[in-house]
Amino acid sequence: MELPQPIKVKIPYIPRNMKLNQPSQEFQANIERIQKQRQYFQKLNRVLDDNEQLMYPFKTGNDKIPKKPHLSDHKYTIQKKKLSKPNFSNTPGCWEMDILVTKDIDRELQLYLVMINVNTRYLIVTPIASKSAQSIIPPLTQSRDKLIMTFNYPINTIKSDGEKSFPSAIQSVFGDSVKHIIDTSPYTYHNKTVDAAIRTLRNALGENNQVLISNPDIMEQLVWHYNNNKVHKFTQITPTEFMNNPDAEYIYISMMQTELNKIKSRERIQPRPQPGTIVMAHLPSAKTSDRFAKRRRDYHTLAYLIKYQGSSAIIQRLTAEPNPDGSVEQLRVPTFAIQFVCNTLRDIYDEHGLTSLGEQIKHTFNLKITSQN
């Protein structure tokens, strides 16, 4: 197994005894940059070993890299485990793709094209210059050729969000030989495998060291550790070993199909809320400043349940305003992100005003409801 090359740090030498509060004339104009570079160098010393190679970053409890503790969310975890579908593909060759945006010490952007196999969890991360199709086509072509030459492994399906440049780039590289599945809903977990991998990469070096992944050399070693050391949750082998064993993937698919059947049987025993009823929903936002931190789930949205669509639920906010054409916005959320409230609006208010349930809902959701009209 070929080991990664030492990290190449492109920063000038800074004497450790240099007094930054009394800089020489040479550094007078660049004092802020020098301070940032020194901090960057100190951070590197915390994650590199004596041979200037990245220490294994994914081990839980690594005392070299402090981890931020997660909030426990016991009730949500139980509900999610009961209703969420296993994350797998029925056929080999299914990948998820997204773009990772980072900033270096000078606040300059560094973009990466991130691809991960849904079943094997094999990760490919390639630096790109921009989000344009012209910048994505070369690394996408390189990834396709690498998979064929190294593992004889195909790319049959690519799942992504609504990134505008993806369809044309995928069409240019694969033509019609690859099925491209696009999901633009901000409330579903359509890219949960690649999103989880991105969170893992960001959190691997510690919350205060996330800027280091803007260095392509560090990112390369992170990906190497991920593929050759991080053990797959169900198969207990590394992603690289998984890619080298086609039979293991078919066994894994069979395991996940069995697990999926168990969940469907559980749903038949414990029925879900029926379409037409009123539910409360958790609508997470993917664009908040703390999107990479684990948060408690808050069911603050009251909505009608319109229908089910696969493992998702189609809902309509109770207070949604009609669009100019008269239509009302409908949202798609995971099934485990909704909870039953009541059957009809008459359970909330009637001709006499708000019921006791209605008063509780009004207080919880801060709704301005006084009568059925």
Number of strands: 12
Largest sheet report: 5 strands, mixed
Low-confidence stretches: 10-14, 60-72, 286-294
**CATH third-level topology of the largest domain:** Nucleotidyltransferase, domain 5
Average predicted local confidence, pLDDT: 76
Radius of gyration: 25 Å
How much beta, percentage-wise? 15-25%
What global shape is seen?
A: globular
Terminal CA distance reads: 71 Å
Continuous helix count: 9
> Structural class from helices and strands?
alpha+beta
**How many structural domains are formed by the residues?**
2
Q: Look at the structure and name the CATH superfamily of the largest domain.
A: Ribonuclease H-like superfamily/Ribonuclease H
Strand order of the largest sheet: 3-2-1-4-5
Briefly, what CATH class of the largest domain? Alpha Beta
CATH architecture of the largest domain: 2-Layer Sandwich
How would you describe what is shown here?
This protein has two domains: 74-264, Nucleotidyltransferase, domain 5, CATH 3.30.420.10; 278-365, no CATH class. The protein is 32% helix and 17% strand. The chain has nine helices and twelve strands. It has helices spanning 31-47, 74-83, 133-151, 166-174, 192-204, 216-229, 239-243, 246-269, 356-365; strands spanning 94-103, 109-117, 123-128, 157-160, 179-182, 278-281, 301-309, 312-317, 331-334, 338-342, 349-350, 353-354.
